[in-house]
Amino acid sequence: MTQLDRTTPDVGAVPAPRRPLEPWTPTPPSGIRWLDAEPPAPPAPPRPARRRVAWLVLAVVALLGIGGAAAVLDTGPRTMTVQGTVLVAVSGLTLPGVPCTAQPVSGWTMSVFGADGGIVGSATVPRTGYAVDQWATRSPYADACRFDVLFTDVPAGDATYRVGVGRSVADSQPFSREQLERTGASITYGR
To answer: What does pTM read for this prediction?
Structure first.
């Protein structure tokens, strides 16, 4: 008798199973995959590029259609913003850059007149400007007081305009639309 035979208990006669035993396979909890289980299905193939291109073309056509409709519906006149400057000759010993006032124009209205002579834009001249050496008549001192004015929403339909201080076209100066859009309107008062 061997060592193994002496320690193994005798269990008696065990009946044979009626059918052969199968290996036990536990049911895994959700989210856990056993190493010997089937791999997950591959991701779905990407959509064909033709569909994306078709949607892109459709979006571009829709945007162009909306833009074209907006252009047809926009019947309002084009407007422009005009920078205006009033230079008033002054005397005295003032250095350039110092705040200044000029009684003839401080607080007055500066107007833009259309080709028909009607006012198409106006703005109030500020009460305080700043001294500039515009004409170099008394260098290094200032010889003018400069006031900056901004005109907004001026109709841009005319080829020529006039700009002046006050509401009378008689004392105004001529400007082209291009001048007003590019460089603004600079007028001199009292020189």
So the answer is: 0.58
